[in-house]
Input
Amino acid sequence: DLLHPADSTSTPRPLVLFVHGGGWTQGNRSMGEGFLPLFAGGGAVAGTLSYRLAQDAPYPAALQDVAAALAWIRTNAESLGVDPDRIAIWGHSAGAHLAMHTAVFDPERAQGICCAVGVAGPYNLLLEENASPFGEMMVRNFLRDPADPLGTGKGAEEAIRARAREASPINHLDAMDPPLLLIQGGKDRLCAPAQAREMAASAMKAGLEVHLGFYPDIGHVPTEPDVFRTISRFLDCHLGTTCSSFFDSIWPVEQPVSPVTDKEMKG
Output
């Protein structure tokens, strides 16, 4: 689904594309509809996509679907009013994993991606073994072998670990990747905060532009305005949009109120 800015123009617009979360097993593109006006209001074409879920189509189907959506948009960019060379991809939770993997795994898949944003995402799937039991369960379900769903067959453990390494964006970083923004809450009990910290450190080591927005008091689903203010400013920097100005116009920064003195009250 795509939402265009209200003001019409013949000039192609940058695209901000959202990938939904849901542990790779739930959700659809409607989960991103609430974000579309923020980016369309800032001058971008805002999009949200669906992908096949793990219980219906095993890994790497979801990643193939995200890549296919981007390829379709690039092929039809002119009729869609999209600039195929100014694309931002972002996602939340499992969607952050899919967005980041798409941005760094293969230059052909990532063609046109100027920047990528991950919110509360897992970027090293093996890390979840020691970080979050529930997260590990979701990762294993995402990577399961349909012929051996319980993972009890010979060589099953080695196979799933190999798929986890391949499916981890942290293992595919290089200096040619686009700028990255990682948003992480310190009270996230579903996706370990270490995910974003390790991803940021590895990206820096690879020579990438990377920003880590760490919010100590937020959980897995951030709703704080500052999170979206950070995202919109990052997108403005790399896409040339005005998302942050639009966001500030609908959700102004709170200004501190100066205390009123007795003299001012009397005057």
Notes: The chain is about 35% helix and 15% strand. Confidence is low (pLDDT under 50) at residues 261-267. The beta strands are 2-3, 13-19, 45-49, 82-92, 113-119, 180-185, 210-215. The two ends are 57 Å apart (CA to CA).
